[in-house]
Amino acid sequence: MRQVFLGLLIALPLCVSAVAQQSVAPRTDLPADLLLKIKPILAHTDDFSKPEAYENMQGGAGSRQLTSRDAFSQFSANLTFAEEEQFNLGNAFFEKLWVSSPASTFASDGLGPLFNARACQSCHLKDGRGHPPENADDNRVSMFLRLSVPPVTQAQKQALANRDLQVIEEPTYGRQLQDLAVPGYKAEGQMQISYEEIKVELADGQTAYLRAPSYSISDLQYGEIAEEVLISPRVANQMIGLGLLEQIHPADILSQADASDLDGDGISGKASWVKNANGELELGRFGHKASNASIRSQSAGAFAGDLGLSTPDKPLHWGECTKLQPDCLNAPHGVQLQQGDTEVPDPIMDLVTFYAQNLSVPIRRDSDKPDVLRGKQAFYSAGCVSCHTPKYVTRKDAPNKAQQYQLIWPYTDMLLHDMGEGLSDNRPVGDAQGNEWRTPPLWGIGLTKTVSGHTYFLHDGRARNLLEAVLWHGGEAQDARDNVVQMTLAERNDLIAFLESL
Q1: b (16+ CB within 10 A) / e for 143-170
Q2: Which of 114, 280, 320, 376 is 20–30 Å from 343 (CA)?
Q3: Nearest CA to 427 among 417, 419, 436?
Q4: What pLDDT is recorded for position 138?
């Protein structure tokens, strides 16, 4: 199937992207003839009379035809039989409920002692996106607060400048507020949210309402929090297609970066650079601020921060307990030396990473319907594709054949953009300023209600539907947002129909 797919892929017509003019090292995984064949494939279309070739196969040859609640939980269709077994084992560890130490359950203890969830699946329910609590009694497990403080000392400023650190953690509560604890310990505190309604008048006389959130922390159990603390909410991202995003060649991402807006189009996408364990800089791709370069590093961070579990990448047996929480640091941990010197040893990390890399992207629906095609044209005309880049061809030298040389349609440039003061959390992370966010992929967005049971969007779920998400756009996306405001009701409905088809 893969050979047929790629053979037809390189037969598509020619058109050149405007961003290719920047001086960026070219792709190194393809010979010159294939680079020429790929160039037209990646160009923005100007024909909205019919779907583009292979547009429905959003995740390449690994795409799956499923629209049920399990649509995000399928393995890529082009895995081998042996890889399917590896995927299923990874899924078991992704769903595994961890318990506190010591426990009679072999190799399943070590949770916390402070944590936000007992399993990866608790946040990424059905491998979909998290949501804010809908009321005071609602489950908050798929949303949490990031914490940090501004640098004060020269050493702190230098560590940030050198990318040895991405943030300066809050001295008592660390980099994340843990709102749960194992028996015998106290959770750090509780997230509180309040909303203010904002009225938005649309050009056709319609009215939209946005909710602007405010965040605070109550029930602090380990002393005062720093007065200058920076708080940023996060909901869990959906999991589909991560391995394909990981195999987009850096050259294809960096060719779109224009931090100084040299071409004058008002879009100044910026790369996020992350220092790895070897001291080398890698391109950040994952997380709301593109602060992780790989799926494995993102997973290790979640094990430490969300579950309080140590991994070879982050050997923190007590998660993010700080030195001002001595009881936490003296708690028993769950290391089983016969399994390794961390609570989540390499074999488990490998399986969880493989699972996250190979969750299939659903096949698109209704791409040939007239309203969807009109909505696609509206998406392009409004300027949304300036950041939500529709398509890529993944690396031919990807480690896993399932991700090699695939035409994919994630609708993201993987870069940081100024999204305006309305969306700013005023909390820098690495190269990302408070008002900068990574362009989120849009594939699968139309199945959010089906999979996750809600339609909350953006980094903190403030948007209750897709139109609200668009209307929150500012900064570099202000013109595109204003173009949507100027649409008629019918045009906006077409735009939403297109988004819901992804």
Answers
A1: bbbbbbbebeeeeeeeebeebebbbbbb
A2: 280
A3: 436
A4: 72
93-138: pLDDT as tens digits = 999 999 999 887 777 899 999 999 999 999 998 999 999 998 767 7
Distant-in-sequence, close-in-space partners of 68: CB < 8 Å, separation ≥ 6: 450
Res. 13: pLDDT tops 60? no
Beta carbons of 351 and 90 less than 8 angstroms apart? yes
Short-list 306, 328, 325, 326, CA closest to 172:
325
Tell me the per-residue pLDDT of 207-240, one tens digit each, with 9 for 90 and over: 999 999 999 999 999 999 999 999 999 999 999 9
Question: Taking 80 as the threshold, does the pLDDT of residue 405 lie above it?
Answer: yes
User: Prior bond to 113 cis, omega within 30?
Assistant: yes
Structure tokens at 93: 């560890």
CB 179 within 8 A of CB 190: yes
Least confident of 25-29, 39-43, 495-499: 25-29
φ, ψ of residue 489 to 5 degrees: the values are -60, -40
444: pLDDT strictly greater than 50: yes
Residue 1: what pLDDT? Answer: 40
Indicate if the pLDDT at residue 500 is higher than 50: yes
Q: How far apart are CA 114 and CA 179, in angstroms?
A: 8
Is residue 78 predicted with pLDDT exceeding 90? yes
- Token pair, residue 480, equals 């595109």
Q: Where are the domains of the chain?
A: 2-18+26-76+240-270+358-501, 108-238+276-341
Judged against a pLDDT cut of 60, whether residue 23 lies above it is answered with no
Which of 455, 470, 496, 472 minimizes the C-alpha distance to 213? 472
How many C-alpha atoms does 166 have within 13 Å on its Cβ side? 25
Amino acid at 379: F
CB 122 within 8 A of CB 180: no
Concatenating the DSSP letter of every residue in 301-367 gives HHIIIII----SSS--TTTT--TT-HHHHTS-----TTT-SSSS-HHHHHHHHHHHHTBPPBPP-ST
Find out whether 17 and 42 touch, Cβ atoms under 8 Å.
Answer: yes
